[in-house]
Amino acid sequence: MKRHQIDCRRLLCPMPVIKVQNAIEDLPAGTLVEAICTDPGALNDIPAWSRINGHRLVETRTDDGEYIVVVEVADE
Amino acid sequence: MSEQRKAVALISGGLDSLLAARVIQDQGIHVEGINFFTGFCVEGHTHAIRKRDQNKEKRNNALWVAEQLGIKLHIEDIVDEYKQVLTNPKHGYGANLNPCLDCKVFMVRKAHEWIERKGFDFIITGEVIGQRPMSQRKETMPIVADESGANDLLLRPLCAKNLPETLPEREGWVDRQQLFDFSGRSRKPQMALAASLGFEDYAQPAGGCCFLTDEQYAVKLKDLWQARGSRDYEMDDIMLLKVGRHLRPSQAYKVIIAREEGESNFLQGYRKGFPHIKTVSHGGPLALIDGEVTEQDVQLIGRLVARYSQGRNADEVVLAYTDLAGETRELRVDPMKPHEIPKDWLI
Predict the structure, then answer these.
(1) Which of B98, B184, B195, B264 satisfies CB 3.0 to 4.6 Å to B286 for a cystine?
(2) Using the beta-carbon criterion (under 8 Å), do A51 and B67 form an inter-chain contact?
């Protein structure tokens, strides 16, 4: 499964959501998008955006002060 | 079977846009939401930065509203394009630096471009005549429709009965009789409608969702423009205006001093772009210097930063000064006394 990493460090919400949204627009279904964030709000906002837009939340975790959210791109 | 019509709703995260979208959904229209990020949106930023706010709920209200409605939400980054709206508003500013009418025109224009690109039929907003003193008045409703280019594709379900018929009403896509005639500043009709639709939990931003309506923020932005001699800004500028104490001892520079640990951590991310000072001998804040400084200025800034450290009453405080090239050296200063800091330094 392809994995696509997005650096959202230093960005405050909703910018991490916008970066994930814009990346997903050009990615094929099934791709895993991993957003690395420093705003803890991303732990709520990216999953919420994924739910309402039909993408699957795979994982959220905190790693040494960074917040990582992984989303699987759904079919259109 | 008739074609299902599609509308995009401007979703701010507040109650009015929630209701406007729901009443159109209830008429069988496919609704999706659009939300614009100008860089000045208040939501969550101070919570994300300040340590004492870290445990507060970090809910993005626009996303939350979309989830309540069961609609998709498209968040558009308009930071760069918004500069023109803010720095040169045709209709001027409100009480502070809020160009509310130009802002509404701009957002509806962007939504109009969006529906043309995506093949949607019309636009919904939660506007109510008389709700806002600048952008939601009887006289401004047609201005928004005309200047945005949306014209009669712009439907305001909450006050539609007080306005001329729009295309979706004339074409029978939407039943005008089921729309509303709200007007004025009272929130009671919206609250009653919310209750009848089963919405109990909703945000009440009351116009406070934009930093440009905040007096303190507007003062800092005006200071930035004045000091630079131009009404321009970058994303980093508008973020930094949300953080710390801003003091301007000279026209040539200002000092941004973190007020607590969360702000110091946030400012850490900007260290490489600014000369900065950190207290070494005592606990203390990180301070960024925005502008050009002389050696004399560095000493003065060191004394100022020491004043805001835990060594404020000590005879001597040691600090580390790092210049733009990344060279760090030690400063030994006596902290400023409160009376040495003129009130007009604080922006």
Answers:
(1) B264
(2) yes
Please provide the DSSP assignment of B242-294 as one string. TSSEEEEEETTEEEEE-SSHHHHHHHHTTGGGS-EEEESSS---EEEEEE---
What lies within 8 Å, CB to CB, of B117 at 6+ separation is none
Interface probe for B, chosen from A6, A8, A11, A13 (most Cβ of B below 10 Å), is A13
Query: Concatenated DSSP letters for B184-235?
Result: SS--HHHHHHHHHTT----B--TTTTBGGG-HHHHHHHHHHHHHHTSS---H
- What is the token pair recorded at B284? 């203390």
Give dist(CA B314, CA B300) in Å, integer. Answer: 16
The reported pTM is 0.89
What per-residue confidence (pLDDT) applies to B208?
Answer: 56
Interface test with A, best of B47, B75, B236 (most A CBs within 10 A): B75
The count of CB pairs under 8 A between chains A and B is 68
ipTM above 0.90, yes or no: yes
- Say if residue B41's pLDDT is above 60: yes
Facing B75 at nearest CB: one of A10, A12, A14: A14
Which of A2, A5, A9, A13 is flagged as catalytic? Answer: A13
The answer to which of B21-30, B33-42, B49-58, B140-149 has the lowest mean pLDDT is B49-58
State yes or no: is A13 an active-site residue.
yes
pLDDT band at B53 (very low <50, low <70, confident <90, very high): low
> Does the structure show a pLDDT above 80 at B209?
no
Domain holding A17, by residue range, is 3-72
Q: Which residues contact B222 (CB under 8 A, 6 or more apart)?
A: B97
CA distance to partner chain A, nearest, from residue B55 (Å): 10
**CATH code of A25's domain:** 3.30.110.40
Q: In this model, does residue B44 exceed pLDDT 60?
A: no
Going along chain B from its start, the domains and CATH numbers come out as: 6-211 (3.40.50.620), 243-345 (no CATH)
Nearest to A40 among B37, B54, B70 (CB): B54
Choose between B200 and B329: higher pLDDT.
B329
| Cβ distance of B48 and A18 shorter than 8 Å | no
Distance from CA of A2 to the nearest CA of B (A): 24
- Residue B50: closest C-alpha in chain A: A39
For residue B174, what is the DSSP state?
S
Q: What's the domain count of chain A?
A: 1
Task: For residue B49, give the chain A residue with the closest CA.
Answer: A39
- Which pLDDT score is estimated for A10? 84
